[in-house]
């Protein structure tokens, strides 16, 4: 029996059904309570805009609820795990399982498999629903909950690096091959020493290069100025490197964020914080898989010993400690103090080892 991962299909389905029912019940309760509290704080701001009414309030609920679900789904898995295991322990069902020859890992196996299913749902939900809700709600908040204007496609004060040159465009209009620049400045450097500054009132993308009109070059060393007329520069700079705007990782899916990071790298911009958020889009949903392991301490030990409540509190403490460490590591990654992979994966791997250590030392 020890050689089988799921010794009993009936028992596995029983535990998985109990675990999922409690997890989503806790999630529904959290969403209702937190959404109500959030509406109490935001309804005044939404209704303050002339013309807003009940429709806008329900629109806000529709945009805010996916964020709450995404953020608190791992908490729901943790609480669902503790409630499920504490109930099984209280009814001596865990004792019966261990008496039948099941190891602690076999007892947890149905919950871990169910949490993998929950993690998959969480990832798909974030990719298809949460990112769009984040982008729309962010744009709506920037206009004080009024009508969201259409994106004009005009960007201002854009910087791009090509080799030793820094290119600044005061304004970028259009996209792709039709992109046009205004108030262009090219700073040419040698060994980090500024050699010259080339200015042009306008430029456009033509023939795989940027064509600047009425260009003027100022030689820093000589202090002289030279009229260049129409020149062609920056053959390796693509139009989308100019049209990149501020990237919001919460409003982009995994593939969209990865593409934006690639474009930003080509433009010579720092991307460490975005890479940390990119990997966290995978490690975040996978945190649900850790919760049965961290909450497993509530499953073992005799319920009549009087320590069941203490074990449940310890399980909750381990779970919440993981979320604190995860948020801290991601913040350090955004600041550049941690490498992106470390910021996204270190808390997950650390608490995986912690959970396994506690489980093995206490039960195996």
List the helices and strands and how they pair.
Blueprint: H1 9-48, H2 54-90, H3 93-99, H4 104-142, E1 155-162, E2 165-173, E3 180-190, E4 193-206, E5 209-219, E6 224-233, H5 239-243, H6 254-266, H7 272-294, H8 308-335, H9 340-363
Antiparallel strand pairs: 1-2, 2-3, 3-4, 4-5, 5-6
Helix pairs in contact: 1-2, 1-4, 2-4, 2-7, 2-8, 4-7, 6-7, 7-8, 7-9, 8-9
How does this model look, in words?
This protein has 364 residues and is α+β, with helices and mostly antiparallel strands. The protein is built from nine helices and six strands. It has a six-stranded antiparallel sheet. Strand 1 and strand 2 form a beta hairpin. Helix 2 packs antiparallel against helix 4. The mean pLDDT is 86.
Which key terms come to mind for this protein?
single chain, 364 residues, six-stranded antiparallel beta sheet, 9 helices, 59% helix
Summarize the helix and strand pattern as letters: HHHHEEEEEEHHHHH
Unreliable runs? none
Number of strands: 6
Largest sheet: 6 strands, antiparallel
Overall 3D form: elongated
Mean of all residue-level pLDDT scores: 86
Portion of residues in beta strands equals 15-25%
Report how far the terminal alpha carbons are from each other: 16 Å
- Provide the helix percentage: 55-70%
Q: What class do helices, strands and sheet pairing give?
A: alpha+beta
Specify the number of helices.
9
| Oligomerization | single chain
**Major β-sheet strand ordering:** 1-2-3-4-5-6
Rg, Å, rounded: 28 Å
């Amino acid at each position: 029996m020890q050689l089988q991962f799921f010794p009993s299909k009936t028992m596995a389905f029983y535990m998985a059904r109990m675990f999922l029912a409690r997890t989503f019940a806790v999630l529904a309760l959290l969403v209702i309570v937190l959404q109500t509290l959030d509406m109490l704080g935001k309804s005044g701001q939404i209704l303050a805009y002339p013309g807003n009414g009940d429709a806008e309030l329900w629109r806000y609920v529709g945009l805010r609820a996916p964020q709450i679900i995404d953020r608190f789904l791992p908490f729901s898995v943790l609480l669902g795990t503790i409630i499920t295991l504490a109930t099984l322990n209280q009814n001596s069902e865990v004792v019966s399982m261990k008496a039948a020859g099941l190891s602690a890992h076999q007892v947890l196996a149905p919950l871990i498999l169910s949490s993998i299913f929950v993690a998959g749902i969480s990832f798909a939900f974030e990719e298809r629903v949460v990112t769009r809700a984040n982008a729309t709600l962010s744009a709506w908040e920037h206009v004080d909950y009024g009508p969201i204007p259409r994106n004009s496609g005009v960007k201002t004060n854009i910087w791009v690096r090509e080799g030793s040159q820094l290119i600044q465009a005061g304004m970028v209009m259009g996209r792709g091959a039709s992109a046009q620049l205004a108030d262009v400045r090219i700073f040419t450097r040698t060994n980090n020493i500024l050699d010259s500054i080339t200015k042009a009132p306008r430029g456009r993308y033509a023939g795989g290069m940027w064509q600047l009109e009425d260009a003027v070059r100022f030689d820093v060393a000589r202090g002289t100025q030279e009229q260049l007329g129409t020149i062609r520069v920056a053959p390796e700079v693509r139009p989308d490197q100019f049209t990149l705007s501020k990237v919001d990782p919460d409003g982009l899916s995994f593939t969209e964020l990865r593409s934006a990071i690639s474009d930003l790298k080509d433009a010579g911009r720092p991307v460490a914080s975005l890479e940390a958020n990119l990997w966290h889009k995978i490690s975040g949903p996978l945190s649900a898989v850790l919760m049965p392991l961290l909450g497993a301490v509530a499953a073992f030990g005799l319920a009549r010993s009087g320590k069941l409540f203490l074990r449940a509190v310890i399980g909750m403490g381990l779970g919440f400690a993981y979320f604190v460490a995860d948020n801290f590591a991601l913040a350090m990654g955004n600041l550049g103090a941690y490498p992106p992979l470390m910021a996204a994966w270190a808390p997950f791997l650390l608490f995986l080892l912690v959970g396994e250590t506690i489980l093995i030392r206490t039960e195996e």
